[in-house]
């Protein structure tokens, strides 16, 4: 099917998926095999060895490309494996400009793994995209942005970043994990590579770890496909199948994440013990105008601080919620609560994180799709 003629809600269900040619099975089978029989050397049906190709993965990759309005999708064993593949496009001496509020694991692979291979990273505030340009030099090869950022939900102007990337021939990578293609499609705004931890909203059910890249350029696709195969961080077919099943309901889940997110953000804002509430839908969010321009909704991610700004006060709230489970990760149907300073962002030195606004009492919510009144009641009794 030429899926690009359809709207996202249709593509999520149908893109890339055809009835199984041998049985007519409507759901793509899990091709649990490591190799494929050849009639004679080289005489095969496009599948030789399962690190290189797997039919379940092929269907998922095509679906991922379609929903991000891209041409090529590549699946990986995790979001970090996808990040690792993108980093391997670089060589020693290359420099990367990165948004300074980002997923802790991304910060870690850059500073602890690839920095030791001679790649230089500049972590900067991209609140004003125009500020990016002053960090570009002859060695700069890549611009890496996460928007909204994790966990401070800063919003970065993708189109303005793409303009700077184009001017200086940099690859623009956008980690679209938090927004998902339901809320924003970075390739449409000029990004070169869209990255996902499909573990989160795309999978949506907290039952799989998976990563994805989507690109439009065939030369870039070829390089990434080479890395995918030669480095081998590929997902198994069962995991591909779980993500394929998850994305079929992305739109209905995201719609509810957005509704619940708004109700909870407004509730928290009215709570006397709550300090700052960060949600991209608030008009006084520092980049709300950009969020409105590039996103189709504001999602279910909320961060807030307590007026009593210390780790113990935050831990006390976390220990009392019953519906919000204390856990890393996000984007599943169930609501989660986390404490970035001691969990996801513990690897960032305190001084650096506080400077960027990631204070001791900051609590991050991934609002699920339960009844919103039950969720509000849970937070009411936990905050006290
Ligand atoms: C979770 C996450 C990652 C890493 O993905 P994994 O699937 O856990 O390897 C990368 N970026 C963001 C924004 C994430 O939330």
TrEMBL record:
SUPFAM superfamilies: PLP-dependent transferases. Keywords: Pyridoxal phosphate. InterPro entries: Cys/Met-Metab_PyrdxlP-dep_enz (IPR000277), Cys_met_metab_PP (IPR054542), PyrdxlP-dep_Trfase (IPR015424), PyrdxlP-dep_Trfase_major (IPR015421), PyrdxlP-dep_Trfase_small (IPR015422). The keyword Metal-binding does not apply. The keyword Calcium does not apply. PROSITE patterns: CYS_MET_METAB_PP (PS00868). It comes from the Bacteria. Pfam families: Cys_Met_Meta_PP. Gene3D superfamilies: Aspartate Aminotransferase, domain 1, Type I PLP-dependent aspartate aminotransferase-like (Major domain). Its cofactor is pyridoxal 5'-phosphate. Belongs to the trans-sulfuration enzymes family. This is Cystathionine gamma-synthase. It comes from Nemorincola caseinilytica.
């Amino acid at each position: 099917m030429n899926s690009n003629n359809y709207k996202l809600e249709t593509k999520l269900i149908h893109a890339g998926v055809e009835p199984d040619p041998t049985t007519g099975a409507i759901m793509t089978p899990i091709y649990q095999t490591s190799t494929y029989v050849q009639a004679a050397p080289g005489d095969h049906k496009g599948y030789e060895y399962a690190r290189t190709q797997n039919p379940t993965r092929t269907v998922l990759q095509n679906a991922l490309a379609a929903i991000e309005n891209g041409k090529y999708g590549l699946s990986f064993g995790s979001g970090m494996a996808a990040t690792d593949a993108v980093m391997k496009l670089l060589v020693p001496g290359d420099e990367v400009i990165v948004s300074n509020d980002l997923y802790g694991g991304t910060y870690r692979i850059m500073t602890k793994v690839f920095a030791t291979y001679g790649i230089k990273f500049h972590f900067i505030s991209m609140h004003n995209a125009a500020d990016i340009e002053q960090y570009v030099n002859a060695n700069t090869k890549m611009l890496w942005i996460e928007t909204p950022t994790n966990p401070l939900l800063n919003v970065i102007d993708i189109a303005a970043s793409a303009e700077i990337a184009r001017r200086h021939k940099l690859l623009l990578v956008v980690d679209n994990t938090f927004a998902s293609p339901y809320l924003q499609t970075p390739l449409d705004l000029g990004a070169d590579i869209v990255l996902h931890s499909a573990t989160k909203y795309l999978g949506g059910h907290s039952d799989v770890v998976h990563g994805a890249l989507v690109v439009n350029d065939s030369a870039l696709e070829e390089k990434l496909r080479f890395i995918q195969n030669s480095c081998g961080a590929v997902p198994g077919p069962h995991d591909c199948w779980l993500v394929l099943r998850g994305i079929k309901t992305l739109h209905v889940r995201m719609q509810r994440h957005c509704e619940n997110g708004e109700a909870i953000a407004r509730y928290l804002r009215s709570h006397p013990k709550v300090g700052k509430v960060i949600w991209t839908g608030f008009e006084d969010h520092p980049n709300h105008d950009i969020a409105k321009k590039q996103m189709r909704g504001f999602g279910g991610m909320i961060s807030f601080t307590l007026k009593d700004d210390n780790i113990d006060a935050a831990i006390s709230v976390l220990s009392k919620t019953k519906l919000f489970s204390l856990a890393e990760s996000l984007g599943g149907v169930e609501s989660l609560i986390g404490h970035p300073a001691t969990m996801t962002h513990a690897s960032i030195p305190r001084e650096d994180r506080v400077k960027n606004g990631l204070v001791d009492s900051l609590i991050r919510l991934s609002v699920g799709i339960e009844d919103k009144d039950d969720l509000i009641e849970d937070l009411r009794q936990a905050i006290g």
